[in-house]
TrEMBL record, chain A:
It comes from Nocardioides nanhaiensis. It is a multi-pass membrane protein. Signal peptide: none annotated. Belongs to the binding-protein-dependent transport system permease family. It is found in: Cell membrane. This is Sugar ABC transporter permease. It comes from the Bacteria. The chain crosses the membrane at residues 46-66, 105-127, 139-159, 189-216, 237-259, 297-319. Residues 1-30 are annotated as: Disordered. Keywords: Cell membrane, Membrane, Transmembrane, Transmembrane helix, Transport. Residues 101-318 form the ABC transmembrane type-1 domain. Pfam families: BPD_transp_1 (PF00528).
Automatic annotation (TrEMBL), chain B:
It comes from Nocardioides nanhaiensis. This is Carbohydrate ABC transporter permease. InterPro entries: BP-dep_ABC_trans_perm (IPR050901), MetI-like (IPR000515), MetI-like_sf (IPR035906). Belongs to the binding-protein-dependent transport system permease family. The lineage of its organism: Bacteria, Bacillati, Actinomycetota, Actinomycetes, Propionibacteriales. Residues 97-288 form the ABC transmembrane type-1 domain. Gene3D superfamilies: MetI-like (1.10.3720.10). The chain crosses the membrane at residues 38-63, 101-122, 134-154, 166-188, 209-234, 267-288. Residues 1-30 are annotated as: Disordered. The keyword Lipid metabolism does not apply. It is a multi-pass membrane protein. Residues 1-21 have a biased composition (Low complexity). It is found in: Cell membrane. It holds the Pfam family BPD_transp_1.
């Protein structure tokens, strides 16, 4: 961390904050002793990087979706417009309707529901524990949270390994599965079941910690008096806790939705997930495989645009909830 | 950062036992209390097992010399460091670690500096960029990586920047910037303006004020933010496998893939490599976890 502290002084490309000129709006404007262009200068480098590496590529991927851009174009640098051909191809492809879209939408719906429910239950459990046990359990779920997606996925694949993973051993000892004939990773439902375990395991800690932070602010007097009036735990949750925590739940749900919609690593790294088994493609892996494994960049870009538009809709909802929360 | 705590309601005293624990002395049947205790215990064990189970399996396999003969249990059957020797020896994981560390540190330095400057602008000046920043944070949360990786791959290949760790670093800086700015904004906003004014009254220039007042006071936030930037770069996988084809340039996340061959998977090495990747992240994560949920949810609220 010492490197961080030393950093800015070594950075030659940094903008030079100018000496303040004595004249502008001194005193009255809430301590504005700085020239009006200073804020622009301060954020120019950040905006430049963001513009060049986020905004520009996004605009580019949209134009790419309307181009016939393949390996030849990548080599020669030329391209030609193809109008809506890429979109026509995708929308007419049964992969979209029967595979990628259901794999994305159903998977996200199931995972968001599970993540939020599990996370909330864990938060309520944390609330009921004494300080010491709560500390232990918080530490434990941090371990789950900190597990990188790449390594987490490998561990789940290992646990469910079809030749001699733990689960297969257990099931075959019990006579419930035969290692020679069972392959979970080629079966769509089982594949996504394992992916669900992985994604929920990775996602519930964020929900639990955030919801716990909210639960701690629910005034206990209200809950106690409701209990004295005979309200059970279920009713107390739905009539007191939940309404108070609505903004937090909104944020948690929408963020989880965004993350689970665009889940990539956890699918791509599973056996067959990188395109060899087309049954288990979702929009993200389909786009990636089309563009970068098959070198059909235009078509891949069109899929990415479709996915982005889906996510854009969700984000608009998120923005609205956030700004509503701000008004409170 | 505590000022940016999430919700609108009055805050509970820090660390105080929650309302539902006990000490309530209400008219509660002892049997119900017992059942509650039992429920807590069962829940505790279940959550504990689910949370740390995968990590434990990873560790025990990594330290098990017989990981690949199908001896699978929660404790290593033949404890040894042989998997780590393979990983560092034949597999050249040391090189990947070095690459990842360089990319991570580069990302931290660049995004820390850029984010600090930008967050001062966003937090301190009467300047309508706060909404833009928020939108950018959301955009980077929202945009699927494929939408960025496709054009950036084309760009990088036309510039001959594939296989360049600097190119990868620049991409990661862009990814970590919006969140870093959003988080740092809260820290800058928490520094009282009066302190700045006092510095000006003492004759300091803006630059002096920045380095001697704002910077030291924002340092804890800068460190927390840097940790997240580092983790972003360290964990990133999609750009790493897309941009890097030369084995000498692999980062750790990309390097793990070589243990999966068409002849089978060397699970002992995979888990040893995974352990090497995971442990630093876990350590850093524990240090700064509290800021994460606050930053994600609350960055927008205060300021």
């Amino acid at each position: 961390m010492t490197t961080t502290q030393a950093a800015p002084r070594q950075e030659p490309g940094a903008p030079e904050p100018q000496e303040r000129s004595p004249s502008p709006a001194r005193g009255s404007g809430g301590g504005r002793l700085t020239p009006p262009w200073l804020p622009w200068l301060l954020q120019a480098p950040a905006l430049l990087v963001l513009g060049g590496l986020l905004v520009y590529p996004l605009l580019w991927v949209v134009t790419l979706a309307f181009q016939d851009f393949n390996l030849r174009e990548l080599r020669t640098g030329g391209f030609h417009w193809s109008g809506l051909d890429n979109f026509r191809e995708i929308l007419g492809d049964s992969t979209l309707w029967q595979v990628a879209l259901p794999n994305t939408v159903v998977f996200a719906a199931v995972n968001v529901a599970l993540t939020v429910v599990v996370g909330t239950l864990v938060a309520m459990l944390l609330l009921r524990l004494g300080p010491w046990l709560r500390g232990v359990l918080t530490g434990a779920i941090m371990v789950a949270w900190a597990m990188p997606a790449v390594t987490g996925t490998y561990v789940w694949v290992y646990i469910f390994d079809t030749s001699d993973g733990m689960v297969m051993r257990l099931l075959s000892t019990l006579g419930l599965a035969d290692p020679d004939t069972t392959n979970w990773f080629t079966d769509r439902a089982a594949f996504f079941g394992i992916a669900t375990l992985n994604v929920v395991h990775h996602g519930f800690p964020f929900v639990a910690i955030t919801v716990l932070a909210g639960l701690l602010t629910v005034p206990k007097e209200v809950l106690e008096s409701a209990e004295l009036d005979g309200a059970g735990a279920w009713r107390r949750f739905w009539h007191i806790t939940f309404p108070l925590m609505k903004p937090i739940f909104a944020v948690v749900v929408v963020l989880s939705t965004i993350w689970d919609f665009k889940v990539f690593t956890q699918i791509y790294l599973m056996p067959g997930g990188s395109g060899t088994n087309r049954e288990v493609l979702n929009l993200g892996t389909w786009s990636y495989v089309t563009a970068l494994s098959q070198n059909r960049y235009g078509s891949g870009a069109a899929i990415a645009v479709v996915l982005t538009l889906l996510l854009l809709g969700i984000t608009l909802v998120y923005l609205r909830t956030l700004f509503k929360q701000e008004e409170l | 950062m505590t000022t940016t705590a999430v919700p609108p309601a009055p805050t509970a005293p820090d660390g105080a036992p929650a309302y539902a624990t006990d000490g309530r002395g209400g008219p509660r049947a002892p049997r119900r209390r017992l059942r509650g205790r039992l429920g807590n215990a069962v829940g505790f064990v279940l959550v504990l097992a689910f949370s740390v189970g995968p990590a434990l399996i990873m560790f025990s396999t990594a330290f098990d010399a017989r990981a690949n003969d199908g001896s699978r249990s929660l404790l290593p059957s033949d404890p040894s460091l042989s998997n780590f020797q393979t990983v560092f020896g034949e597999a050249g994981f040391g090189r990947y670690l070095l690459n990842s560390a360089m990319v991570g540190v580069g990302t931290v330095l660049a995004s820390g500096l850029l984010a600090l400057l930008a967050s001062v602008a966003v937090a301190r000046f009467r300047f309508r960029l706060r909404t833009t920043m928020l939108v950018l944070v959301l955009v980077i949360q929202m945009v699927p990586l494929e939408a960025l990786v496709i054009p950036l791959f084309i760009q990088a290949s036309s510039l001959d920047m594939l296989d360049s760790l600097i190119g990868l670093t620049v991409v990661y800086v862009a990814f970590s910037l919006p969140f870093a700015i959003w988080m740092l904004r809260g820290f800058v906003a928490a520094v009282p303006v009066e302190l700045e004014e006092a510095a000006y009254l003492d004759g300091a220039s803006w630059r002096q004020m920045f380095w001697h007042v704002l910077f030291p006071l924002c340092l804890p936030g800068l460190i927390a933010t840097s940790v997240f930037s580092f983790i972003t770069a360290w964990n990133e996988f999609v750009f790493a496998i897309t941009f890097l084809g030369d084995e000498d340039k692999f980062t750790v996340a990309a390097g793990l893939r070589q243990f999966f061959t068409q002849y089978g998977t060397d699970w002992g090495s995979v888990m040893a490599g995974s352990t090497i990747i995971t442990v630093p992240v876990m350590v850093l994560f524990v240090i700064v976890q509290r800021r994460l949920s606050e930053g994600l949810v609350a960055g927008a609220v205060k300021g």
